[in-house]
């Protein structure tokens, strides 16, 4: 598809995330949606610019920090205070730039920020712009065409559908998680086998942690799997 | 056995164990028979007046501090109404947050704007947990006898 070939995956993700905010304005109003997005976007972008400059000694487009901020706004507790949202954004970028292994960050930045946010009393609501199942029917094929990272999605969804039923396939929250956070290029594996293992570890974590953990099972299992897949890829030949 | 095969084997076993644990704990919580989606229309054997009176009795109000009553007990076939008395929107969804898979019919209640009221009937005995999707710390449950 020539049009998709000309647009980078980063811009496509940004367009998709902004579309979710736009759809959210119909249900929640423009003011509340902006108040949900701006604090995290501001801190992730500013911190991303700062840390990038420290590392690279030059200014760069803060596309990934912008994406992190937009994700945080869509997942964090709806109506959380601006200060909390800003802190979550800042923590996400600090963890991204400081917690590294072999020169690459280990944890999904938005997930790490949201995890710390739970200690501040902000439990992720996964409002993701409202229940807009249809938009994922457009987004997921585009994502798979551009990124070709289908194995983590299959590795996660197959066991969850098998053991807890197909209703997860119609949940906007889980579709957002699967098609945005789970396949983040820097913290998910690119190979087929490790991608399936990575997805399966997230699924196992979700199925177990959802039963007794006080923390959000998707966020926690994502972070555990981020680390697990790095250990496996470092010490095994999968 | 190579380390690769061993790792894959361990992961497969872990997923199967996790799934087995999930199914076992669901069996312990899930009502029998299996839950069904129901409408709010009165059953043929119930008069409209009785239905209205019963719905007025089984009302859960929603405010910024949560659901009131937080836990409500009804009889099989009864209907519960959720009334949003807060100035903000709330979204009633089945446990477990955020995937809402335990009792999908509860997800049909969904978003309630300020002043809005929605109802759902519960045909089968069991305990059904729910929460406010926009503020998951607000939780409630319906026990159907």
Characterize the structure shown.
The complex is a heterodimer of chains A (238) and B (145). Chain A has 238 residues and is mainly α. Chain A has one domain (2-235). Chain A has eleven helices and two strands, in the order αααααββαααααα. Chain A has helices at residues 2-6, 9-28, 30-56, 63-75, 82-98, 109-119, 133-147, 151-164, 172-181, 192-212, 217-235; strands spanning 100-101, 104-105. Chain A has a two-stranded antiparallel ribbon with strand order 1-2. The mean pLDDT of chain A is 94. Chain B contains two helices and nine strands; from the N terminus they run ααβββββββββ. Chain B starts with a helix and ends with a strand. The model of chain B is unreliable at 28-46 (pLDDT under 50). In chain B, the strands form two sheets. In chain B, strands 3-9-8-5-6 form a five-stranded mixed sheet, with no helix packed on it. A four-stranded mixed sheet of chain B has the order 2-1-4-7, covered by helices on one side. The relative contact order of chain B is 0.20. The longest helix of chain B has 27 residues, at 3-29. With 145 residues, chain B is α+β, with helices and mostly antiparallel strands. Chain B has a domain at 48-144: Sandwich (Immunoglobulin-like). At the A-B interface, helix 8, helix 9, helix 10 and helix 11 of A face helix 1 and strand 9 of B.
Question: Notable features of this structure?
Answer:
heterodimer; A: 238 residues; mainly alpha; two-stranded antiparallel sheet; 2 strands; 2% strand; globular; B: 145 residues; alpha+beta; Immunoglobulin-like; five-stranded mixed β-sheet; four-stranded mixed β-sheet; 2 helices; 9 strands
